[in-house]
Automatic annotation (TrEMBL):
Keywords tagged on the record: Hydrolase, Lipid degradation, Lipid metabolism, Signal
Domain Peptidase S9 prolyl oligopeptidase catalytic: 212-344
Signal sequence segment: 1-22
Lineage of the organism: Bacteria, Pseudomonadati, Pseudomonadota, Alphaproteobacteria, Sphingomonadales
PANTHER family: PLATELET-ACTIVATING FACTOR ACETYLHYDROLASE
Entry protein name: Prolyl oligopeptidase family serine peptidase
Keyword Lipid metabolism set for record: yes
Entry keyword annotation includes Hydrolase: yes
Amino acid sequence: MRKRKIAAIALGIILVGGGAAAYVASPTVHAGQSGEAPEFGRLGAYNIGTSVKKFALADRTKITTWGAISGNLTDADRELSVRFWYPAKTSDSKTAKYAHIMRPPGKDPVTVSANGVAVPDATALVDEKYPLVLMSHGFGGWDTQFSNLAEQIASHGYIVASINHADMPIDGIRSFLLSFGNVLVDRSLDQRQILMQILADAQSGSQPYAAQIDTDNVGLIGYSMGGYGAIASAGAFYDFANDPMANIPAAARTAMEEASQKPLPVKSLVTFAPWGGQPDSRAWTADSIAAIDKPVLVISGNQDDVVNYEQGVKWLFENMTGSNRYMLVYREARHNIVGNEFDLDADSDFTTAEFLKEPVWRSDRLNAINQHFVTAFLDMTLKGDASKADYLNVPTVDSNDSKWPIGFGEQLNGKTAGDEQSDHWKGFQRRWAVGLEMHHMKKKQ
């Protein structure tokens, strides 16, 4: 009988819990958007438009097979497209769909796509100026690979310009070496020439898209090889002592050195899994990394075996001593910590999944967290919103150690931590800030 009584009490508790579960399953406090996303991982107040513009890049060269042997470069016309997202007047419900054809070496082409919320060629809002954020993808990537991040940033009152670097296609070892060699040369030069043209258009008012740009507040975001270029664009001088940098032809090396003498006019830098810090192919010295004096947000997986988290990414972060910097770490994540959630066929080739997916983390979860921290960081550094520092200066380095006590049976229904939950990562739901680390190092005085 006693066992039955205990069971009855337990059943009563379960039934109470069941009633609570029904309450939790009702619409969350974040109407119309995933309640799982942290506070700034959701779309902002602005409707947005999107458009594409081509840019001609003067005085550029190309490494060819013969050039790699002889050290002579081929003059090359370089024209790249840039995808813009911007606050807009929108009445059209026809939103963008971003499609791209991937061509894995030796495999059939694969089309990947993502649905957007931006309206193509919508009329831009011109009642105020908005900070500009330039985005640069990784080796073999494309301009809309991170369209979800770009749209989310734009919806919070930014203009985002994403470069399509048009890396040379790869069909074998030789083409890989040529393509990668050109990426080493091109990434920072592309960023420099395109950003300066965008700013010139903004100053002259010669282009409709540029009328919105606040030229005094510019941010730069780079992933992997885009991060490599962004570090140089932000003020770090290349070191050509190590391979593969030592194999860059002399003429290209000269162009890179001359460009690096003039850091781009950016006020903040975000690097996702940046290439170039790993000991076997280090692109900078500690002194050159220390020359970066802008605030930096580094985002990485602690199992990144492409850019070497322990000896590469951490080395970069620790040696950016001229900067007030943060490093968000995803535990058990490898290299693909940013990018749209692409649905792949069940029988799709593993090469495609390996390029786009993470083995442990869900892409949509990564996206929401990235959007949260990048938005807070940009608001703090480009809009001067000091209150956003509270979202980066978290109470515990390890998110698992954060605390948010509640009363028995209390239901939060997706509420995110605010000032009253000072021992929890601000902007995250209770129990949902897990698997993360946030490191902070101040500028060396």
